From TrEMBL:
Allows the formation of correctly charged Asn-tRNA(Asn) or Gln-tRNA(Gln) through the transamidation of misacylated Asp-tRNA(Asn) or Glu-tRNA(Gln) in organisms which lack either or both of asparaginyl-tRNA or glutaminyl-tRNA synthetases. The reaction takes place in the presence of glutamine and ATP through an activated phospho-Asp-tRNA(Asn) or phospho-Glu-tRNA(Gln). The keyword Isomerase does not apply. Belongs to the GatB/GatE family. GatB subfamily. This is Aspartyl/glutamyl-tRNA(Asn/Gln) amidotransferase subunit B. Keywords: ATP-binding, Ligase, Nucleotide-binding, Protein biosynthesis. Heterotrimer of A, B and C subunits. It catalyses: L-glutamyl-tRNA(Gln) + L-glutamine + ATP + H2O = L-glutaminyl-tRNA(Gln) + L-glutamate + ADP + phosphate + H(+); L-aspartyl-tRNA(Asn) + L-glutamine + ATP + H2O = L-asparaginyl-tRNA(Asn) + L-glutamate + ADP + phosphate + 2 H(+). It comes from Eubacterium segne. InterPro entries: Asn/Gln-tRNA_amidoTrfase_suB/E, Asn/Gln-tRNA_Trfase_suB/E_cat, Asn/Gln_amidotransferase, Asn/Gln_tRNA_amidoTrase-B-like, GatB, GatB_C_1, GatB_Yqey_C_2, Gln-tRNA_amidoTrfase_suB_CS. PANTHER family: GLUTAMYL-TRNA GLN AMIDOTRANSFERASE SUBUNIT B MITOCHONDRIAL AND PROKARYOTIC PET112-RELATED (PTHR11659), GLUTAMYL-TRNA(GLN) AMIDOTRANSFERASE SUBUNIT B, MITOCHONDRIAL (PTHR11659:SF0).
């Protein structure tokens, strides 16, 4: 069999974190009752006129600057004409001829382990369409226009990626940049970041690209990786069988790990683009550009270096914590409340990551606050609870962001620090465990752990382990 290489470019749609839509004042909040966040503009009523949201332009500029793009100083909007039930105007306001950002790049680690640039062809602003809900029971489709008019940027890459690993690395880099800018939460599970994959294969060494397909319905990095691997195999099998790859849009079903054709791929002329007559040009002055640039945050690489230097965290800890902006925010806010950086890091790296894995959620979906994590750490430091009890409290806090102080009080979890009372319990444990006592006295230091365990069991886990250790050593 011949050797093939995969050629991949992405179209990444990102919902921007504005409070209102791109051309009207309707709410962009996720999860409202169907068709409640709507008005004549975003439902496409005749005679309604769009008014551009300034914050959308500033977010687009910020993402463009952070991805090394040129910013178009004199831009405009265009109408992309097509009929679809969730597109109430029968056109989408987008940018074809003068997108706000062009000719950028981001750097990733390529398959060979070296730094690689993935070029960005353009970033343009546009409005989102509505959403169709398909009801199999009643055999009908319902339209929810809450999402219609939600502001998007579409980040169009050049076909510079060669594997699923490079695609995921690129998407993670974009996600981090956009999250750190505060331009979007980039939650794939809520659709605020969506990627369409344009993929073709060709023989290794060939200069011409193969016929590409576009895959949609990709809502997680794992689904994207699986879809890429599946489509690569499908196209190679077609070529090896002497058949042609058809240029088309395909829909990926991650449950069945199968893609199926939706429609033949349209070209730009099929949409009959023309300048939107209701919107004025977007003029970006040097002063406005510099103002947006001056608000750039500390990005991940700088933050990692600072965590190692300022907080003396291991590089591994800094790498994991900064991989998700909400984790970095949680870490910094908890440290700012007077907690030791390494102690905060231990709770994030240990129990937080463990529970995220068990619950099958991403770290940017955690619910508990820095204030409550700080309270939990203080309860341990003040010997109000021991670490075993703290883990139990943390599990509840992880689920519901419960106040740990109230939880400990309500559930009678305060540890016993009374040396006199504990001395009597320790004496009894020593009497009942002569073998362990003999091991300790013969120099087997680890044997004391068994006696500590028996004491903790006798006190239902409420004894202070430090006090128990002290008393055991004293009495033995």
């Amino acid at each position: 069999m011949k050797a093939y290489e995969t050629v991949i470019g992405l179209e990444v749609h990102v919902e921007l974190a504005t409070k209102t839509k791109i051309f009207c004042s309707c709410s962009t909040e996720f999860g409202g009752a169907p068709n409640t966040h709507t008005c004549p503009v975003c439902t496409g009523m005749p005679g309604s006129l769009p008014v551009l949201n300034k914050q959308v332009v500033e977010y687009a500029m910020a993402v463009g600057l952070a991805t090394n793009c040129d910013i178009t100083r004199n831009g405009k909007f265009d109408r992309k004409n097509y009929f679809y039930p969730d597109n109430p105007q029968n056109y989408q306001i987008s940018q074809l001829y003068k997108p706000i950002c062009t000719n950028g790049y981001v750097e990733i680690k390529g398959d060979n382990g070296e730094t690689k640039q993935v070029r960005i062809h353009e970033i343009h602003m546009e409005e989102d369409a509505g959403k169709l809900i398909h009801d199999d029971f009643y055999d009908c489709s319902l339209v929810d226009l809450n999402r219609s008019g939600v502001p998007l940027i579409e980040i169009v890459s050049e076909p510079d990626m060669r594997s699923a690993d490079e695609v995921v690395a690129y998407l993670e880099k974009l996600r981090l940049i956009i999250q750190y800018l505060g331009a979007s939460d980039c939650k794939l599970n809520e659709g605020s970041m969506r990627a369409d994959v344009n993929l073709s294969v060709r023989e290794v060494g060939a200069k011409e690209f193969g016929t590409r397909t576009e895959m949609k319905n990709l809502n997680s990095f794992k689904a994207i990786a699986r879809a890429i691997e599946n489509e690569t195999e499908r196209q190679i099998d077609l070529i090896e069988a002497g058949e042609k790859v058809i240029q088309e849009t395909r829909r990926w079903d991650d449950t069945k790990e199968y893609s199926y054709a939706m429609r033949s791929k349209e070209d730009a002329q099929d949409y009959r683009y023309f300048p939107d007559p209701d919107l004025v040009p977007v003029i970006i002055s040097e002063e406005w550009l510099q103002e947006v640039k001056s608000r750039e945050p500390e990005f991940r690489d700088e933050k990692m270096a600072r965590y190692v230097e300022e907080f003396e965290l291991p590089e591994y800890d800094a790498d994991i914590i900064t991989l998700y902006k909400p984790l970095a925010d949680l870490f910094e806010e908890t440290v700012a409340l007077g907690n030791k950086p390494k102690e905060v890091s231990n709770w994030i790296m240990g129990e937080t990551m463990r529970l995220c894995k068990e619950e099958g959620i991403d770290p940017d979906q955690i619910k508990f606050s820095a204030a409550n994590l700080s309270k939990l750490i203080k309860l341990i430091e003040d010997s109000v609870i021991n670490r075993g009890a703290a883990k139990e409290v943390f599990e509840e806090m992880f689920k519901t962001d419960v106040d740990p102080e109230k939880y400990v009080e309500e559930h009678g979890m305060k540890q016993d620090n009374d040396e006199d009372a504990l001395r009597e319990i320790v004496k009894k444990v020593i009497e009942e465990n002569p073998k362990a006592v003999e091991d300790v006295r013969s120099g087997k230091g680890k044997a004391i752990g068994a006696l500590v365990g028996q004491t903790m069991k006798a006190t239902q886990g409420k004894a202070n382990p430090a006090v128990v250790n002290k008393l055991l050593k004293e009495l033995l």
